[in-house]
Fold:
Amino acid sequence: MPFLDCLHFNHADQFSYKEATKSACKVRSIPYLDIFDLWQSQGQDWISDRLSPDGLHPNTKGYSALFEEVLHWQPLKQLEQMLSVGE
Structure:
């Protein structure tokens, strides 16, 4: 899929980058929220409804979905609990 007529983006490259990032986080014991897999599990129609016309960046519905995923991500909830105990 062309992006701005100067770059080429595809899901295989996006998946490879995601896997490298996920692996680096695992080695360092850093929690990783795998948005790529979460979105892929929703199906192509769901994804298409949440992407901008460039096929890469989220649209308003996409950013809302990202916000909800982060908001309900278990490691973030655990951090909030740890921080609230210290208050």
